[in-house]
Design goal:
- The chain is mainly alpha-helical.
- The chain has one domain.
- Helices cover 85% and strands 0% of the residues.
- It contains six helices and no strands.
């Protein structure tokens, strides 16, 4: 399962790097998920990541952290479809109104998070 978590970690790192380089490109990427099927796919990805993180936790460098991340990810994956498309669109609109600096900082946090996940599972 560490291999699966590594794949998710690389994806998070790449998307974060895209946001640091071009916040507009990140927003455009996220806008592609603005459909009912996109919400369900995102929920599925979160649940899959959560299960993978939970399963990979015992063999990782940070088992407690990965278990907590796994639970949080599964819960957020279940909650995402309940959030609804209109609320997702409202959150994305709020995000678009933030400054470029704000967007880049959060994209940098995503890069750091992806790097942390890679470090955790590559033993």
């Amino acid at each position: 399962m560490g291999f699966v978590v590594s794949g998710f970690a690389l994806a998070i790192l790449v998307v974060g790097a895209m946001g640091v380089a071009s916040p507009a490109a990140l927003t455009s990427f996220v806008r592609r998920w603005q459909t009912a099927s996109g919400i369900w796919a995102a929920a599925g990805f979160r649940i899959a990541f959560g299960v993978a993180a939970w399963t990979a936790a015992p063999a990782s460098r940070t088992p407690g952290v990965l278990q907590v991340l796994g639970v949080v990810s599964i819960v957020s994956g279940i909650a995402l479809p309940l959030l609804g498309l209109s609320r997702f669109v409202a959150i994305l609109s709020w995000w678009e109104r933030r400054s470029v600096r704000f967007k880049r900082v959060w994209a940098g946090v995503a890069c750091a998070f992806g790097g942390f996940l890679l470090w955790s599972v590559i033993v």
